[in-house]
Structures are given as structure tokens and as C-alpha cells.
Write a structure and sequence with these properties.
This protein is mainly beta. It contains three helices and 30 strands. The protein is globular and about 65 Å long.
Length: 452
């Protein structure tokens, strides 16, 4: 259904309105089904991973094919928690936000998981040292600084300065600004919902009004600033996320769009593609309604390869998952709220007797990505799909965390082409620049940890 709805007229908005009535329903069903399956998978991993734990455990699942560090969100607020502790005893601050409890997760294994442990009020030292949030305020002075960058915005929430600290580089040219949301008259000479004519730039219109920015979240993990803009009878509300331990700035926007023949785009000193185009043919209500979209700014030293820009983009689009397992099979800590939604709550005892590897698949070369893990089309085996993304010729070792009888390199139709040798849970493959490779895994009946 996803592939069907990626038909070349559906994606750009050039179908008749009836098509979108159908695809809206289908995409809602896809999202609901995907959310349900993700919930099931994360809860299964969590209950087996924490089966032998003697205390409450937060299991963080990383579905990307590389080790990562990112924000972890747990929908349960966990009353009384003051910090989280990793297996090596290191404490991390937590923050209670409107979307749940958040903390910064370090070194989450590729295609795997890591366990953290809630520290409750009974640990006064943790509370004193790590739960210090900044004083809550409503007004914002337009600046934010962490160890990676220093940024400054004007009253319209336009970025007027962004300094990357490792080399002191200023990314916003003098007299210019970033995050400038602007509209343009959009009346192409032909093909209304298809074309954007070059001359649209001659009629730009900035916002009719901009609300004062307000701090919505302010703590040791993240700061969130919210403001709104008006364009005629349309509005855009944006939340800007600043993270204490990430070099990325996220701009999450919700647009309630009610204006025809107006193009909305966001401008930086480098161009960013248009966000909303509201033509009237063949769909007279194209792009009318509610839109949600997020874009990010990532200042960094060196080139995109060294800065792992592709990985940072994946992090934005593929969040970490987290589940809370209660000790002793209990589903709620004594005295804690019972209003958990099922996503984050499983019983530790349910997974007793099972052992899972902390990483199911990993690769020793950063140039190669694990993109897909799936059942083979015939239902017999498992498929890994990887690709090289640095335009390099690479010999890579792929390590498997589960016991595998056989690994075969396949074509795109999953037909075996060559059997690969496995040694101590590893096999080797050579990637050409930007090459996509498919591997077929014949799994042993018993899942066990592979020890090198």
C-alpha cells in the first residue's frame, strides 16, 4: 500500500481530490498498523532483555545499523525519578516534558538495545547533582549555547548568528538570516499543481504577524521555544528544539493552511525546498489543511562524511524506542501512576529464560549502512540489505549477534548468487561506491549470543 501511494502523481499533489480522500485513510491505517507492530517488537525485545533484572529497567532500542547517541523519550513520566543509570554506573540527568520523560542515551548498539536503570528519590545525591533544571521562564532572550554551538535569533525567530565552536566559524553571513519563513505568489503559466515558475521569487511576502517566542520546556536535556506566524488566513506554529548534548537544532512546524496560490518556504543562506504549494488544478483544495514537518540545522567541523551528516539525518527521522520493564513482574512501582499506555510497560518476568544479543547486526565500516532487516519473500529466511554511502570502495566485516547456519549474497529478487564464509559470527563483503547489497541469512533454530 505504501508503494502504491508513492505513485508519481500522488506524492507531488497532482491527483484529483478524490484520490487524496482515499490515500489519507490508507496512510492513517499504515501509521496505526506500523505503530502497533513497532510496539509489539519493542516490548518483546524489552521483556527478554530485562528478564533477569532485579530492578526497574528502561530498555532503549536502536533500529538503525550503527551505534548512536540520541534523545530517549519514555511516555511514562515515572514519578519520583531523578536520573537514569547506565550499566557502567554512569548517571544521566532526566527531564519531564509534555511528551514524556526524556534523557540522553549514549552508545546504543547498532540494531540492538541498551539498558538503563531509573534512580528514584531515595538517592538524594543523584537528585541534588543531576536533577537541576534551569529556572522556568516564559520569555526568551533569543540565545542558546551548548558545547557544540552558540546561536542567536531576532524577534521574528530568524537565525541571525550560528557559531560552531570547534573552529569558531560563523555560519550566517553578515546581513542575512536563516529560518526565514516566507510566502510567494504561485501562479504558474501552465500545470497549476505541477509547476513552480522561476518568476515566483519576484513576489515574496513575509509573515503578517509573529508572536513573541515562549519557552515551553527548559531543563538539563532540552530547551523548547515556541512561536507562531500568520500569513493571511493561514498560520504556522513552530517549536524549536535545542539539546544540551546534541549539535543539532530541530524545527518542528505545524501549518494550518487555508490559502490558495501561495507557496510557503523556509529560507536559509542556502536554499531549502518549498514546504507547501497550494494550487487549484486538478485538485482545487491541494495542500489545504493541516501539515506537520520538521527540518534541522546541524553545524559541524569538516566535510559531511567526517561529520556523519547522513547518520544525523537518520537520527532525526528514525527515533530511538524505549520500554519500561518493572522488577519482579510488577506492572507499576508501588505508589506510582497506573496511567501507562501499554507502549512502555511490560513485565520483566515474561522474558525469563531467554537471552538476546545487545546488537543483532553491526558493521565495522562507517561507509556502509544496514538499511533493512526483513523476512525473505518466500518466508523461509531473513534478508539484510546494506549500501555504501561515501562513494568509496570498501571491504567490510558484518558481525551477526545471532547464530546463523548460512549467509548468501543475493540479487534484488533474493535469489542466491554466492555463499559467504562465516567465522566467529562474522562475514566479509566488498562494496563498490554506492553499491546496494542483499544478504540472505539461514537462521539456526535457537537464538543465542555469538561470542567472538
Amino acid at each position: 500500500m505504501i508503494l502504491l501511494n508513492q505513485f508519481h502523481d500522488i506524492i507531488p499533489g497532482t491527483c484529483i481530490e478524490k484520490v487524496y480522500d482515499t490515500t489519507d485513510e490508507e496512510y492513517a491505517r499504515i501509521l496505526a498498523d506500523g505503530h502497533k507492530e513497532a510496539k509489539k517488537a519493542v516490548n518483546v525485545i524489552a521483556k527478554y532483555a530485562s528478564a533477569k533484572e532485579k530492578e526497574d529497567t528502561i530498555v532503549v532500542v536502536n533500529t538503525t545499523g550503527y551505534e548512536r547517541e540520541d534523545i530517549v523519550t519514555l511516555s511514562d513520566q515515572l514519578p519520583g525519578i531523578t536520573a537514569v543509570r547506565s550499566g557502567d554506573g554512569k548517571l544521566r540527568p532526566i527531564q519531564h516534558t509534555e511528551k514524556g520523560l526524556v534523557f540522553f542515551g549514549e552508545k546504543i548498539p547498532a540494531a540492538g538495545y541498551k539498558k538503563f536503570y531509573p534512580v528514584y528519590e531515595e538517592a538524594p545525591k543523584a537528585r541534588e547533582e543531576l536533577h537541576k533544571g534551569k529556572k522556568e521562564e516564559n520569555a526568551w532572550d533569543g540565545t542558546y549555547e551548548n558545547r557544540f554551538y552558540k546561536v542567536r535569533f531576532n524577534e521574528q525567530m530568524q537565525m541571525v548568528s550560528l557559531i560552531e565552536k570547534s573552529d569558531g566559524r560563523e555560519y550566517i553571513r553578515e546581513g542575512m538570516a536563516g529560518n526565514v519563513l516566507c510566502t510567494y505568489e504561485d501562479r504558474p503559466m501552465n500545470w497549476d499543481n505541477w509547476d513552480i515558475d522561476e518568476y515566483y521569487k519576484r513576489k515574496p511576502y513575509e509573515a503578517d504577524w509573529v508572536s513573541a517566542p515562549v519557552i515551553r520546556e527548559n531543563g538539563p536535556v532540552e530547551t523548547v521555544v515556541e512561536y507562531s506566524l500568520g500569513f493571511g488566513n493561514s498560520t504556522v506554529t513552530q517549536k524549536v528544539y535545542f539539546y544540551q548534548d546534541l549539535p543539532r537544532i530541530d524545527f518542528a512546524a505545524t501549518a494550518q493552511w487555508n490559502t490558495h496560490h501561495v507557496l510557503l518556504r523556509v529560507n536559509f543562506p542556502v536554499e531549502v525546498n518549498a514546504s507547501i504549494k497550494s494550487g487549484t488544478y486538478p485538485n482545487e483544495n491541494a495542500d489545504i489543511g493541516c501539515h506537520e514537518f520538521t527540518y534541522s540545522v546541524y553545524p559541524h567541523h569538516g566535510g559531511w562524511r567526517e561529520a556523519r551528516t547522513v547518520e544525523m539525518a537518520y537520527d532525526l527521522n528514525v527515533p530511538l524506542f524505549a520500554a519500561l520493564c518493572r522488577k519482579g513482574g510488577k506492572t507499576a512501582r508501588e505508589g506510582a501512576s497506573e496511567s501507562l499506555d501499554g507502549w512502555n510497560k511490560v513485565s520483566c518476568m515474561e522474558g525469563a529464560g531467554k537471552v538476546l544479543p545487545e546488537s543483532f547486526v553491526s558493521c565495522d565500516r562507517k561507509e556502509c549502512f544496514l538499511e533493512t532487516v526483513k523476512r525473505s519473500e518466500d518466508g523461509k529466511d531473513w534478508i539484510l540489505r546494506m549500501y555504501e554511502h561515501h562513494n568509496s570502495h570498501v571491504k567490510a566485516k558484518i558481525r551477526l549477534g545471532i547464530s546463523v547456519k548460512q549467509v548468501m549474497e543475493c540479487d534484488r529478487l533474493e535469489q542466491p548468487a554466492e555463499e559467504l564464509e562465516i567465522k566467529k559470527g562474522e562475514f566479509t563483503a566488498v562494496f563498490k561506491p554506492y553499491e546496494i547489497k542483499t544478504f540472505r541469512l539461514v537462521i539456526s533454530n535457537t537464538i543465542r549470543v555469538v561470542v567472538g
